[in-house]
DNA sequence: TTCTAATCGAGACGGTACGTCGGGTCTTATT
DNA sequence: AATAAGACCCGACGTACCGTCTCGATTAGAA
């Protein structure tokens, strides 16, 4: 077992890290993930290659961190770090609103390129996939779980329903359409998904 | 614009094509998609690189064709080329049976590696994605549309439901779990999906 | 020992041969010897590659034959097939005249490219070199031997001189300058060569 | 016009350069120039191809430098870097001695293969030829010029003779025989050349 | 505030694979 | 049977990046 000397994070250059994030996101957006190279990121960031290899094991990890950082920044700007699905008492309306916001985000070009790339890499790279799911996907899905639990408490959803599965009825179709481009994603579509799904979850 | 002279398909070597398919599938299964190289496929198939470049524009296209061919072969062996979802009159039972078979297929290692790889490539390569969807995915989904239409005719499903969207309620979650490894896929899971979804599609 | 079936020369296409000669000479002149390829010759001659491989073992042999043919043609046109060095009785004048003609030929672009190419190939390919020397060079040199022998008979050259060596005193320097581009070749230069050399060959 | 970034010569690996020289010379000697490939040199030298392409534009240039280096090494070993043709007062004897040494060198297999290859390449590649002549050939010939000038000073050679041309009378024939294999090269032959040539250069 | 050790920008290095070119063989249909 | 055409296997080309490895130059924490 070869020990790689752990670099001293306290002396790390914040400027370089930012520049690397920016370069990685910009390149993925401009030339696509496969044509984005470590060398290209380093050159664009005005950084030595070694500085990248010192802190990240692969370009996928660079992009994942850059993307997480982008998300944090966006959340911080919106001032809504502790994100929640609203609870107006009308479950269908709340879900439709959230899904419409998700549609907007999925169509935002700033997000599209990197998240597609990460999803693609994850399909084939199990380790990255786990990290992606744990850090990004599951926290999002947990919000739906919370909201559905609340709905069960008020009787809007049958108590025997597993919320972790139930949420997939409307979340997965949207994800699928987006990832595989099987069909366009619109507000009308997500509204319909919620309608179809909730029929089945509501008590008789 | 330089025109590449179109090769004469009638003189194409069938033996080479088969060998390339086999090599591509074997390598993807053995070393994974990213480490599968055109050079490796050529070497394993006992074929010149040029023979690959003559007929396919990229390794993704090689793999797509190889996979389509694999599917055709499998179907031909099973003697069930005009595939259909059974119609016993019990929609829930029929869907559960089909989804269980799908689970088996998704867990079959012969299919897993190449289809993951193609899905991953499709996320980032729109042209390939379209071909993948058109040649493989949509034909499969159409079978569900047909079965749901039949269910609407017998009154088992509400007539105002769009079958193309309805089918996503149980198909997409399964696909999602498989692709993103968010959770294990089991018979119990698919059965539950069908139950949840059909509640919502059945008449009141 | 694998026997290569000897092709039937009587059925050979004269038209193809001519086309191949023309194409080979043209290409060597236009793009240079290294960039002249068998494939290129075949394409330009409107001939299948196999037709070349059937009759010649290598591109050097094609060019050698093409060049020999070119020489024969030129000689036939000039109507002087049985070539001779003139014998006016004045050895120096005769040699100067012949060398001046040689200078002209060496500077003729039609001859320069192919003969350079053949010389180059010969340096590294002994078999070709022997053929080149035997078919082209030695016959030429023999003419000088004859003329020098005649000069010895008239007493213009010492009888103990070996004509085969003596001729090299003026022929080789010219060849060398041309081949290696060490210095320009002119009439004045060849005249000087003859003067210097004959001093040494003349009786005291 | 794309500018290729000039590599930083101060950081060049001396070990790699030596290994490349050795590999190039060894391969040319073992398999011949045409079968010597950049890939083969790199593999034999244990070096990446790019390291060759970074510093030399072609395999001919690699070989030329390797050969120049070989010559320098040999000269340094012999401790006779400022090489001179001896001047014992007997011009004929001095020239014969030097030419005999040249014959030895031309027949030394370590020198034969690469110098033939370079000569061949030079015939067809003018740029290389100029470099070869300037760096290797002319310095050698200049030694003869010097010796002949000295001979003119002592009256051993006629004052109106151009030494640069005179030297070709014995040097070029030897070179020619060696390059074109028209006849074997021996001490007797070079002695004869000197005799024939000096007759013509000596005063009456 | 100076010293000093780690990080940094830069890029040369040994490699692997790319996509292309051409060599020489073989097959097919045409003459 | 020779031919034009060109697919085939193969080896080398010159290029792009990989991940590792030096090099000064800089820079931040401990002295």
From TrEMBL, chains A, B, C, D:
Do you know which Gene3D superfamilies this protein is assigned to?
A: Homeodomain-like, Tetracycline Repressor, domain 2
Q: Which residues form the HTH tetR-type domain?
A: 14-74
InterPro entries in UniProt:
Homeodomain-like_sf, HTH-type_TetR-like_transc_reg, HTH_TetR, Tet_transcr_reg_TetR-rel_C_sf, TetR_C
The alphabetical list of record keywords is: DNA-binding, Transcription, Transcription regulation
- DNA-binding region(s) in UniProt: 37-56
MF terms in GO: DNA-binding transcription factor activity; transcription cis-regulatory region binding
Q: What is this protein called?
A: TetR family transcriptional regulator
Q: Which organism is it from?
A: Streptomyces spiralis
């Amino acid at each position: 077992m070869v020990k790689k000397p752990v670099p001293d994070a306290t002396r790390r250059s914040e400027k370089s890290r930012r520049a690397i994030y920016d370069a990685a996101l910009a390149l993925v957006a401009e030339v696509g993930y496969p044509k984005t190279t470590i060398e290209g990121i380093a050159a664009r960031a005005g950084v030595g290659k070694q500085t990248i290899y010192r802190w990240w094991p692969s370009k996928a990890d660079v992009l994942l961190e850059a993307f997480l950082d982008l998300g944090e920044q966006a959340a911080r700007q919106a001032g809504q770090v502790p994100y929640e699905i609203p609870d107006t008492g009308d479950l269908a309306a709340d879900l439709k609103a959230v899904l419409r916001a998700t549609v907007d985000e999925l169509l935002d070009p700033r997000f599209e390129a990197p998240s597609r790339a990460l999803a693609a890499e994850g399909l084939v790279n199990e380790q990255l996939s786990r990290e992606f799911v744990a850090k990004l996907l599951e926290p999002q899905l947990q919000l739906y779980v919370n909201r559905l639990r609340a709905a069960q408490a008020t009787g809007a959803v049958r108590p025997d329903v597993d919320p972790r599965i139930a949420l997939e009825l409307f979340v997965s179709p949207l994800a699928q359409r987006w990832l595989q481009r099987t069909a366009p994603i619109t507000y009308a579509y997500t509204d319909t998904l919620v309608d179809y799904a909730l029929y089945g979850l509501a008590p008789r």
